[in-house]
Design brief:
By secondary structure, this protein is an alpha/beta fold. Helix content is 36%, strand content 24%. It binds adenosine-5'-triphosphate (ATP). GO terms for molecular function: ATP binding; ATP hydrolysis activity.
Length: 259
């Protein structure tokens, strides 16, 4: 019987998924606490992105449990998962290059279950109120991520780092309790990495827990506690950054795979 952790927001147990007979997730057990920024690391091909794909409902699991905020979400469709407050970002930011930052934020805020197009088209007082609330939230999100100065610029005109921030903003507009961030600093310069870290550090204080995949160990070390290490479709180690870094099994898993 697994020990239940009172502060567990997300409890994944025995999660399995294979592609064409190749087992990519081989019984993953992970607990994510509310109020924490949890790091997920591991060599290429360990199964980290697949784990995000399964947890966010894009890929159904072959077996196992995903309990989030007291609900079983294994196999649930992506919109059910995000409506439950579990929202993800992608390695390569998605979106519409010609839409402005503001339009992006509004779009993803509006893209919520229960949001019907009809009242918006009819222009009822309730839908106007909802639009005004959304606009306020979009501005709040832009300010939180220091995107307010570029709020009217098209997404295509943003720097690589700003695109990453917009991807995070998109997730925040869904009012999540947990965000899954897939390589939030990939391709970003060191100064902006520091800025992204500072923005992420503010999220637990707003009631948003974070689980992030990242290859930049300095970023992980500065931001994440605990750190979970995956290798070959399983969790290999978990603890503080210092403890997993000192773990011989972790060193071995990385050896020769990535400097
Ligand atoms: N839809 C799919 N069809 C077939 N194989 C897949 C699919 N998705 C993932 N895989 C395979 O699963 C394995 C794990 O990939 P995954 O992207 O989850 O690893 P990762 O730990 O995120 O690696 P990286 O750090 O390089 O992003 C890889 O061998 C990959 O080719």
């Amino acid at each position: 019987m697994p020990v239940t952790d009172a502060a567990a927001l997300l409890s994944i147990t025995g999660l399995r998924r294979a592609f064409y007979g190749l087992e990519v997730l081989r019984g993953v057990d992970i607990t994510v606490r509310a109020g924490a920024i949890t790091g997920l690391i591991g060599p290429n091909g360990a199964g980290k992105t697949t784990l995000f794909n399964v947890v966010s409902g894009l890929v159904p699991p072959d077996g196992g449990s995903i309990r989030f905020a007291g609900r079983e979400l294994a196999g649930a469709a992506p919109e059910i998962v995000s409506a439950a407050g579990l929202v993800r970002t992608f390695q390569v930011a998605r979106g519409f290059p010609r839409l402005s930052v503001f339009q992006h934020l509004m779009l993803y805020g509006r893209d919520q279950p229960g949001e019907s197009l009809l009242p918006a088209l009819l222009g009822s007082a309730a839908s106007r109120r909802r639009e005004a609330e959304l606009a306020e939230r979009a501005w709040d999100t832009a300010r939180l991520l220091n995107l307010q100065r570029v709020i009217d610029n098209p997404a295509s005109a943003l720097s690589g780092g700003q695109k990453k921030l917009l991807e995070i903003g998109r997730a925040l507009m869904a009012e999540p309790r947990l965000v899954l961030l897939d390589e939030p600093t990939a391709g970003v310069n060191p100064v902006l990495k520091g800025e992204i870290a500072a923005h992420l550090r503010a999220l637990p204080g707003r009631g948003i827990a974070v689980l992030l995949i990242e290859h930049d160990m300095r970023f992980i070390g500065a931001l994440c506690d605990p750190v979970i290490v995956m290798a070959e479709g399983r969790v290999l180690a978990e603890g503080t950054f210092e403890s997993v870094r000192a773990d011989a099994r972790v060193r071995e898993a990385y050896m020769g795979v990535r400097a």
